[in-house]
Design a protein that fits this description.
Layout lengths: L24 H24 L3 H13 L8 H17 L14 H26 L5 H14 L5 H30 L5 E4 L7 E5 L3 H10 L6 E5 L9 H4 L4 E4 L7 H4 L7 E3 L15 E4 L8 E3 L10 H10 L16 E4 L3 H6 L1 H10 L4 E7 L8 H9 L4 E5 L14 E2 L2 E2 L1 E3 L6 H15 L8 E6 L3 H12 L6 E3 L8 H11 L2 E2 L3 H9 L1
Parallel strand pairs: 2-3, 2-5, 3-4, 5-6, 6-7, 9-10, 9-14, 10-13, 14-15, 15-16
Antiparallel strand pairs: 1-8, 11-12
Helix pairs in contact: 1-2, 1-3, 1-5, 2-3, 2-4, 4-5, 4-6, 4-15, 5-6, 6-15, 13-17
The chain binds iron/sulfur cluster and FE4-S3 cluster (SF3).
The site of FE4-S3 cluster has 15 residues, from helix 15.
Subcellular location: Cytoplasm
Pfam families: Prismane
Protein name: Hydroxylamine reductase
Length: 516
């Protein structure tokens, strides 16, 4: 096996015998075979026309190879066989070209495009489940996968990456339309860390529709629902918030799950990444759905009408019974309340206030501190960075990296909290929308705003978001905790020269450089 798609890759250059994430060689090889089958199907589709089934298989196949999603070689092989059958049925040829071999810079650029597409596939999948598909987005998966099999100059690869970044921005917009169309526009809410006594279920991942289905099926059953990780922003959507048994939030970011789930008297439903190999202490409480899978964990399937039967999960919650008494919990910094819901609609509804505050100097700087969390000790940078931001600045945040600081009470500016959670990683769409609106109001470009992006990455959704930001012309992004192993020195240099992208250093130095 060889895999270097995520930030925790072995030795900072590649996992070779087994993944640091727990992915074994059999699964890794099966994922490479699956990727080759998707390339073959995409080439066929481009030449002879797409089918609805092929559209879905390509999106789901790419999503299944995202880090911490699917650890089940059998599930991966089944997907691969289905894709192969679809291609053969349509008369397409197989593809057995290289994925990660060849000239270092070309491997780097090809891998960047592949990993970006894996991230975008996750977003396209969530949007499709809510009935939203977009021809430009779906069509680009065919184009992008086909291009992986073609030879290109470095400039051509960079052109493809920028084109992809724009399409991924459209895909995030599509998912925003899907989520807000189904569940309303998020509005700011305070979410408790307290767990009430009695049976409960924890839901993690990004799929709001899965949460909705479960809320419906647990109505009036005496079972409470708590979000975990990237599901936190669900509380802000009116059509989900209205369920009185959606009570609060449990736990912090994904890398703490083995510790946090150990003694949990409740089952956990994984709707997406990041799933870690479950420890024996809680293996029987892990339930997966959609493209997430782990050998031995109960997998809940979707029927032909798009429904899911969660009765096994519900029975498990009743069997485990929850805590005998209400339980007080806190975040990493000891806070017991989280706020979320500052997506584009909420922020733009107070745009006048924000603009006035910037004009008057009450808000001197806006930071976007967002992205993935992970296990590396260096990620403490983000906690310290936020703690050291001056009182006359605002911190916008999104994705799961925020659990390092979102329970800190950082105070308010002009009635707005200083730390504002815009949502999940895909809500980077909201951040861009707000930035563009501010730039418009001030009659300047985005790069001329008193705005700095300090991002953390771990898996491939961060890759597609980064490419979108670059494609939109956002410059001087600080990225950490380490730079991607799949970016070769030459490719990195091009990104530094063209976009001013730079690695994080220390909170003190970076703040000084930004504000000085
Ligand atoms: Fe290694 Fe990351 Fe690939 Fe897992 S996803 S095998 S940790 S590079
Ligand atoms: Fe987190 Fe896995 Fe990336 Fe959606 S849940 S941001 S790491």
């Amino acid at each position: 096996m060889f895999c270097f798609q995520c930030e925790q890759t072995s030795g900072g250059n590649g996992c070779r015998n087994v993944g640091v994430c727990g992915k074994d060689a059999v699964t890794a090889v099966a994922q490479d075979d699956l990727t080759r089958e998707m390339i073959a199907l995409a080439r066929m589709g481009l030449a002879n026309g797409r089918t609805k089934r092929a559209d879905e298989l390509i999106v789901d196949g790419l999503f299944a190879t995202v880090t911490n999603v699917n650890f089940d070689p059998q599930a991966i092989s089944c997907l691969k066989d289905e894709i192969k059958a679809e291609r053969e049925g349509l008369g397409g040829q197989p593809f057995d070209g290289p994925l990660f071999e060849g000239d270092t810079d070309i491997v780097s650029l090809r891998s960047t495009l592949l990993f970006g597409m894996r991230g975008m596939a996750a977003y396209a999948h969530h949007a499709r489940i809510l009935g939203k598909v977009d021809d430009e987005v779906t069509g680009w998966f065919y184009k992008g996968l086909s291009e992986l099999a073609n030879e290109h100059s470095i400039d051509e690869w960079l052109g493809l990456l920028m084109e992809f970044g724009k399409v991924n921005f459209r895909c995030m917009e599509l998912l925003d339309e899907a989520n807000t169309g189904a569940y309303g526009n998020p509005s700011p809410v305070r979410v408790t860390y307290n767990i009430e006594k009695g049976p409960f279920i924890v839901v993690t991942g990004h799929d709001l529709h899965d949460l909705y289905l479960l809320l419906e099926q647990t109505k009036d059953k005496g079972i409470n629902i708590y979000t975990h990780g990237e599901m936190l922003p669900a509380h802000a959507y009116p059509e989900l918030h209205k369920y009185p048994h959606l009570k609060g939030h449990f736990g912090t970011a994904w890398q703490n799950q083995q510790k946090e789930f150990k003694d949990l008297p409740a089952p956990v439903l994984f709707t997406t990444n990041c799933l870690m190999p479950p420890k024996d202490s809680y293996k029987d409480r892990v339930f997966t759905t959609s493209v997430v899978a782990y050998p031995g964990a109960v997998h809940i399937i979707e029927d032909e009408n798009g429904n899911k039967d969660f009765s096994q999960l519900i029975d498990k919650a009743i069997e485990l019974g929850g805590y005998p008494e209400d339980k007080k919990m806190t975040g990493i910094n000891g806070g017991d309340v989280l706020t979320t819901g500052f997506a584009h609609d909420a922020v733009l509804s107070v745009a006048d206030k924000v603009i006035d505050a910037v004009k008057s100097g009450a808000i001197k700087h806006i930071f976007l501190v967002g992205g993935c969390d992970g296990a590396r000790p260096g990620r403490n940078y983000y906690t310290e960075f936020v703690k050291q931001t001056p009182q006359d600045s605002v911190v916008l945040t999104l994705a799961c990296g925020k659990f390092r600081f979102n329970d800190i009470d950082a105070g308010e500016i002009g009635g707005l909290p200083r730390i504002m959670d815009m949502g999940q990683c895909n809500d980077a769409y909201s951040a861009v929308k707000v930035a563009l609106a501010l730039a418009d109001a001030f009659g300047v470009g985005v790069n001329d705003l008193p705005l700095s992006l300090v991002l953390s990455w771990y898996e491939q959704k961060a890759v597609c978001i980064l490419l979108s930001l670059l494609a939109l012309g956002v410059k001087n992004i600080r990225l950490g905790p380490t730079l991607p192993a799949f970016l070769s020195p030459n490719v990195l240099q091009v990104l530094a020269d063209n976009f001013g992208i730079k690695p994080i250093t220390t909170p003190e130095e970076d703040l000084k450089a930004i504000l000085g």
